[in-house]
Predict the 3D structure of the following.
Amino acid sequence: MRNNLSRWIYWVVGLVILAIYPQVVGIYYTNVFVGFAIFGLYAVTLNLLLGYMGVLSFGHAMFFGAGAYSTALALTHIQGFPLLPALLVGGLAGAMLALILCPLLVRVSGTAFAMLTLAFGQLIFVIALKYREVTGGEDGVGGYPIPSFNIPGVVSIDMTDQINFYYFAVTVIIVCLWLLWFYTKTPFGSLVVGVRDNAMRIDYLGFKLPQTKAVNLIVSGCFAGIAGAIYALFQNLVSTLGVLDIGTSFAPILMAYIGGLGSFFGPIVGSAILHLLEDVTFRITEQIELVNGLVFILVVLFAPMGIVGLLRQAKAKWFHKEKVS
Amino acid sequence: MNILETEGLYHDFSGLLVLFDVNLEVKEGERHAIIGPNGAGKTTLFNVITGTYSPSRGRVTFKGKEVTGWKPHNLTRVGMGRSFQITSTFSRLTTFQNIRMGILSKRRIRFNLFRKVDKMQNITEETDDVLKRINLDGERDLPASMLSYGKHRSLEISMALATDPDLVMLDEPTAGMSRDETHHAVELIRRLTEGKTVVIIEHDMDVVFSLADRITVLHLGHILASGPPGEIRESQAVKDAYLGETEV
């Protein structure tokens, strides 16, 4: 009962902070926050593969990019395409791409999985770069109309207003994160963790291994696609270098490692740290990668379970001491 | 009635013949031990029966149905369970979660995405029941990798039984255990496999002769003898191949 109450208090406090945040910090940090939240969701979908299923994807940007491009293209070519379907198109594109690739991807793990995803990620990057008629090549797709949030006869909210968009994006991302969190808690979610620990035993316990991996891949791809779709709405410009390049594939890996693979919320913490770091670094130098890399090395050396792991350790130690005294 | 039969089973690893015309018959309800010197092909026989490999030639029949070359998950679903010689649990999951995986399989809960597994009261109760029966309720929330060797082995055996199979294949369940632990493991196996058919690979002759109703001796990939313990103990061929060595 008390547990329930404190959980409600956390939720309410959290939501209130999110609600007043843009009023307090101004437009610049509101946009930083949206960027952080998008990448937080995106990094969580990577962690569904890396932390939960135990495979490292070096080409996760292809799902993010597929979502971003699909949303951008739908908005460019279809007049009056509404907002929520634009998000769904992105999710669908990510899921479809995962569905197409999963016959190959479920058969491998370890290094082979990393190399295959790297290859497909790069392949899709090059296709997007060369297939100019559709994707606009290096220039990308941009300047498409951003639809308003419309409930006919009730409300119409202008999404080109950055504050409005902040509320919209944060709401969508919280809903997505909640869905994914719930997903990891279902019997199927526990199965995915079993695949990570001992795939052979999962087979011997009577579960179909390829199908289990495939469903998890598709879920991961779908929500990465939604993250891409929000990105497309946020930036109003989708180009290969922003959503499909190798940097976009590596970013969530860094976030997941720095935040902590062992926890659902670790990658979100990682995203927050990297975004803050980027903001600070930019004032001094442009060598962001250098700083990110250093932080990554430090985390791997001194906190292999990530920041969340470090906090958990500290908490365990602290409570332990309390008990002893 | 025979619950498990192999007919003319051959298996080779790129030319190296490991199983050679193996005709194994396991009667329903019996405890059947497979013994034989190292390299006799016991684990390979297990692997071919339980679906790790397809045999090069021959047939495997389970409950009167041909299951040659079936995948492990399909065999599990029709009632075959297996434990491993080298402990193969979910090392980072707790003891409770390890057993729960078997219970979920038994209840055929696979692609359920709409309920939290922790909130499934009947699953939790059943898992806790199993933990109590195997004396691991004290280690309920410990990761499997933190268990003592003997308890880890018990968990390994119990996972094979958690899906409630009709036929249990135990690959050296007491491997590496101390005298004491072996004694407990044998008691555990006896208790948990009540009314089930058991095929067990075992090196410890005390375990074999105290547990088995029938013994099959495998030597160089071929069945040397098969029969009740008394008969095997007296067989000259078996003594020459296997039992004699232990007396030296």
